Each structure stands twice: as C-alpha cells, then as structure tokens.
C-alpha cells in the first residue's frame, strides 16, 4: 500500500469493504507506522450490512505522522478460534510458509485445468522436485517442510514417501534396519511408496507406485517350510537406480486418469506384479517377526496387529484432515453467500410468486428434490465402489460431473425450495378463511393440529408475523426442510397412486410394491426425529419401521442383480468397466490399466529431469 501523510486531521471517513463487514459487527481500525502498531480503535457497528458504506473514526494526536498502512480488521471470537487450531508459533509458521508457496511461480495453480494428464503429471513432478529444492535451500525444519508440501496443494508421490513409507520403516523395522534405511529416505536418496491391499478397502492401486517411486513397503504372505505366517512387510526395490526401468521379474504401471480434471490424477497410482523375485532376508521388516539365517520364523512379543499401524495412522490423519477440506469449502461458500445476489429483493420474489400455480410449484419442487437426490446417490455409488469408483474408466466420475450441474441449471435447487415454501406458507395462511387446500397440498388441512402440537400458535392465521420477510429469513433453513418433506410426500403419494393401477408384466407390480416399501420406510427412518417430534408416530412404531427396513434390505440384496438386469442397459450404454454384464470387472480393470498413455514408455519422460537429480542429490540449489 502506498505511504500517505496525514496532517492536522481529527477524524477520517474510511470506506468499509463488504467482505469485512459481513464477518462481524465489530470493526477495528489499526494504524501502522515505522513497522509497528501506532494505535488502534475498535467500535461496534450498529447498521445492517446493506447500510454500511463508510465509517467515521475520531483520530487524536496523529498530526504530521507518516503512515505506512491504515486498514480495517475484524475482531471478536476469531483469535480464540485461531488459537484452537494450534499454538501461535504454529500459526506463524503456517502463514509464513503459505506466503512462500503463494509467491513462487512454480507452484502456480491457474493453469491446472488446461493441462493434459501427461502434462499435469509432469508438472506435479516439477513441483515436487522444486519443493524439495526449496526445503534444502532455505533450509526448512520438518514442520516447515510438511507445511510447504501441504500448501503446494497437489497430491504427489512425495506424499506417500513422507506420509506412509517412512512411518512404516520407523514403526516396523529394527534399530539396525532404521539406521540403514532412514538416512536414505530422509535425504530422498530413495523414494518409497506403501504397497498394501488395505483391509476392508479393496484398493489394489498404491499411490506413488506407477511411475515415480523406486522402493516400496510391500505386504505379502510369508510362507516358511510350507507354513503360512500371514502378511508381513518387506522393503522391495522395484525400479532401477540407473534408468528407472523395472527390475527383472517385476511389472509396474500406472492405472490411468481418476475423478476430476486433476484431482488425484496427479498421483501416479500403480499396479505391481512379481514373478519369482528374490530380495535379501534383512529387507523383511523385523520388529514384529523375523526369519533367521537358518530359515526359522520367530515371532516377537509385539502384537501382530501393529503390522497395520501405518494404515491406522494414515486413517487417523485422514480423519484429522477432513476439517481442512470441509473448512476450505465452507470458507468459499460463506464468502460467496455474503455477496451473492439473485432475483433482486425478497419483496419482489414474494409479489411475483403470489400467482404461482400448483403445477409450477410441484414441478419446481420435484426438480430440486430429484436432482439433489440423484447427484448424492451417484456420488454414493462411486464411494461404494471403493478406489475403483474413482477411476474415470468406471464412468461414475463422469456421471457425477455431468449430472451435478442439474442441481443449478433451470433453477438453483435451494432457491426453488424457498419458493416452494412461500407457496406452502400462502396455502397455510388461507386455512383461516375456510378455504380447503386441494391436490398436492390437500394434507395441509390438518396442519393446524400440527401447529398446536409444536408451538404456541393456535390458528394457522397466527403464523403471520409483523415482518414476514424477517421471519422467513430467520426460519429459512427449517422452511427448506419443510419444502423437501412436501416434495417427498408427492413422490410417495404418486407412487401409491400408480400401484393402484393395473401394471402389465408378471410379477412387476409386486416388485414395484417392494421398492415402494423400501423408499417409504427409508424416508421414515431418515427423518425419524421429525416424525417423533410431531408425534406423527410413536417410538414403538419407529422401532418396528427400522426392523422392517432391515428385513427389506436383506430381500433386496438377493434380487439386486435381477432388478438392475431388468433395466436392459447394454454394456455400450453403461460405458463402465465395472458394470459389464459378464461380471468380469477385475480382468477388465487390469486390461484397461495398460491403455493408460503413461504406460507407453517404461520410464516416464520426466524421470531424468526430476527424479534422477533427487536420487543422486544433484538438485541445483541457489546460493544465498
């Protein structure tokens, strides 16, 4: 900011940015000079957000002072919240490293959506190598290095090296093994990954394995003299130090593009196969168990469950990191919501909505309900396919990416639900006049009873507040849920009406009744709290409905394949290697992996440029 000089000023009118105001009703003026805080003034803001455009602040004894910076800051509970995230020292490190990354052109993000997968992967290698170079140059502590990789914000092979490969060696190897391997890993003279088929996860494609890593902690069954001793960890070199080609007997390849334009496609998840490969005995991780030189298996007193300690540690890290991901998204949407404008004032919406016919309300509501439900269901299907659902070849990512815009185009779903709620409120307000609702709102003739059960309101007409707009804004989150419930009731009711008709096809009607029962009971179970709160059902009925739903789920599992086969979709139409009619998902996955362009060459094009210098400690560092 340019330096300014104030002379003989007793007050100043400062413009107030909307992005500052919506955070809090308490503002602070901070005046900096000569690198330190000269003074500050805090005052309460009483105006509403739309009325604040400037603020007048009295200033005393600032005559002829050259000011470096004058700015508004927001105060309140923020400091307490920031300190909960870590110590002040940790916050200072975080902010400093974040600025370091943001100012480095190598770590730029603006070109990510224009890169091909090959270029994106090469760019990721470049960033990872540059990050390591900066860590050496500065130099950075272990905590600072972790923060730098975090703020680079691009999944890379180094994540698995530092986050899984090293912790596994530290946690499962003997002291002698640690002395051999850890210095190499910390200097990145070897690059490792974690090659385990995780328990209950079903992922066979380790990250960092496809093209970048040299070594891996491989979990395999240990057979000694014909006896199976279960899974054990081994440090296995699978790529050559000389030219990065696979070692004899080893097949390794990347598995292809994943969900999203970039997402985890910057991580070279890979497939690994061994054919009569030998390794030295001392490359077995021997803290939990070992094989002696004489070929005898020896189990230590350490519980075997600790073999999976790295997996547990990483899952704990994932749980901890959910707050980072969620808070990031919440930050974006909160800031956007503060400046978002749609359809002008609320009064205009109300006046325009007064003539909305029931048909429009019904279609708008169902559009919102069905698109949101479908998008969520597609995503759930993707998650249920575990890691394979993240592959583009599963077509689930494409389905999700293609369908999600339906939640926005032709009317934003939340805005539509608020419009439906206005329609419902208008219907309720007419009950006092004796006008009975019909059609999809016929059930609202009983709403007066519900109001008496849940509030002090004695008549439906009493819902009117002195300011409808204020009450609508205050209750908008509850009203959205009400609109969703109204739309769900429409679906259930129309389903029943259809089942009362003649339906051709042997057994078709029975199966539709079965599916309707599941859907209706699922909604009842999902919103059980609301049903109990309004005394629409008793606790006993809630328990019975949950029991019946479990019975129906068990029946559905037996008929699931037949039900989806009845859709008669061809393999071509589905377009998914996971959903072929023949059921050969895993052979299809393996065959598809070899079509990945990165597998056109055994050694990645960028190996010599980025990986080789790291391994040989030949990164050029700046002389400071």
Question: Can you walk me through this structure?
Answer:
- This protein has 624 residues and is of the alpha+beta class.
- It folds into four domains: 4-76; 91-285 and 604-615, Acyl-CoA dehydrogenase/oxidase, N-terminal domain (Butyryl-Coa Dehydrogenase, subunit A, domain 1), CATH 1.10.540.10; 344-501, Butyryl-CoA Dehydrogenase, subunit A, domain 3, CATH 1.20.140; 508-577, Butyryl-CoA Dehydrogenase, subunit A, domain 3 (Up-down Bundle), CATH 1.20.140.10.
- It contains 21 helices and 14 strands.
- The protein has helices at 18-21, 78-84, 88-102, 117-137, 142-152, 157-172, 175-186, 309-339, 346-353, 358-384, 396-403, 413-429, 447-454, 468-474, 476-499, 508-526, 528-533, 539-565, 571-574, 585-593, 607-615, and strands at residues 4-6, 11-15, 26-33, 36-44, 54-58, 65-67, 69-74, 192-195, 215-224, 227-237, 250-254, 270-274, 289-291, 297-299.
- It has a three-stranded antiparallel sheet, with no helix packed on it. A three-stranded mixed sheet has the order 8-9-10, with helices on one face.
- The longest helix has 31 residues, at 309-339.
- The chain is globular, with a radius of gyration of 31 Å.
Put the structure in a nutshell.
This protein has 21 helices and 14 strands. It has 624 residues and is an alpha+beta fold. Residues 442-616 form the Acyl-CoA oxidase C-terminal domain.
């Amino acid at each position: 900011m340019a330096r300014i000089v104030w002379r003989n000023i007793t007050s100043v009118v400062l413009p107030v940015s909307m992005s500052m105001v919506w955070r809090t009703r308490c503002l602070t003026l901070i005046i900096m000079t000569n690198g330190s805080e000269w003074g500050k003034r805090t005052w309460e803001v009483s105006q509403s957000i739309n009325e604040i455009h400037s603020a007048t602040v009295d200033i005393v004894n600032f005559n002829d002072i050259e000011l470096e910076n004058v700015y508004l800051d927001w105060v309140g509970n923020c400091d307490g919240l920031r300190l909960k995230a870590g110590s002040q020292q940790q916050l200072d490190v975080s902010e400093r490293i974040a600025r370091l990354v943001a100012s480095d052109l190598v770590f730029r993000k603006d070109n990510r959506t224009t890169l091909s997968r090959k270029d994106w992967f090469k760019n990721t290698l470049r960033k990872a190598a540059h990050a390591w170079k900066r860590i050496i140059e500065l130099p950075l502590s272990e905590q600072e290095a972790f923060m730098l990789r975090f703020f680079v914000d691009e999944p890379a092979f180094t994540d698995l090296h530092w986050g899984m490969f090293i912790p596994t060696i530290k946690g499962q190897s003997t002291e002698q093994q640690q002395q051999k391997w850890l210095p190499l890993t910390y200097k990145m003279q070897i690059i490792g990954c974690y090659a385990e088929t995780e328990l209950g996860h079903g992922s066979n494609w380790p990250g960092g394995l496809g093209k970048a890593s040299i070594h891996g902690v491989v979990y395999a069954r240990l057979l000694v003299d014909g006896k199976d001793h279960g899974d054990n960890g081994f440090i296995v070199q699978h790529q050559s130090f000389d030219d990065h080609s696979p070692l004899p007997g080893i097949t390794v390849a990347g598995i292809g593009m994943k969900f999203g334009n970039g997402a985890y496609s910057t991580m070279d998840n890979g497939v690994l196969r061994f054919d009569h490969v030998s390794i030295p005995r001392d490359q077995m991780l021997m803290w939990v168990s070992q094989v002696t030189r004489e070929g005898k298996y020896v189990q230590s007193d350490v519980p075997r469950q600790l073999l999976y300690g790295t997996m547990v540690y990483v899952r704990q890290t994932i749980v901890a990191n959910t707050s980072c991901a969620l808070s990031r998204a919440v930050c974006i949407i909160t800031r956007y919501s503060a400046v978002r404008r749609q359809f002008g004032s609320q009064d205009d919406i109300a006046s325009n909505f007064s003539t909305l016919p029931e048909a429009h309300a019904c279609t708008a509501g169902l559009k919102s309900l069905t698109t949101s439900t479908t998008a969520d269901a597609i995503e759930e299907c993707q998650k249920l396919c575990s890691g394979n659902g993240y592959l583009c070849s599963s077509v689930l990512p494409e389905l999700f990416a293609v369908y999600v815009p339906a939640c926005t185009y032709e009317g934003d779903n939340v805005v539509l639900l608020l419009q439906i709620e206005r329609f419902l409120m208008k219907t309720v307000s007419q009950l006092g006049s004796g006008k009975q609702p019909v059609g999809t709102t016929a059930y609202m003739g009983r709403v007066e009873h519900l109001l008496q059960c849940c509030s002090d309101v004695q008549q439906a007409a009493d819902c009117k507040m002195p300011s409808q707009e204020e009450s609508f804004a205050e209750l908008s989150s509850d009203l959205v849920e009400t609109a969703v419930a109204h739309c769900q009731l429409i679906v259930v009711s129309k389903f029943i009406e259809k089942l009362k008709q003649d339906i051709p096809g042997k057994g078709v009607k029975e199966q539709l009744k079965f599916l309707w029962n599941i859907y209706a009971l699922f909604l009842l179970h999902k919103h059980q709290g609301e049903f109990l709160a309004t005394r629409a059902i008793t606790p006993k009925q809630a328990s019975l409905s949950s029991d019946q739903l479990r019975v129906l789920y068990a029946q559905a599992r037996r008929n699931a394949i037949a039900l989806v086969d009845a859709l008669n979709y061809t393999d071509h139409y589905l377009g998914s290697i996971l959903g072929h009619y023949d059921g050969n998902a895993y052979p299809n996955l393996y065959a598809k992996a070899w079509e990945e362009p990165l597998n056109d060459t055994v050694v990645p094009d960028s190996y010599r440029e980025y990986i080789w210098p790291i391994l040989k400690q030949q990164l050029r560092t700046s002389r400071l």
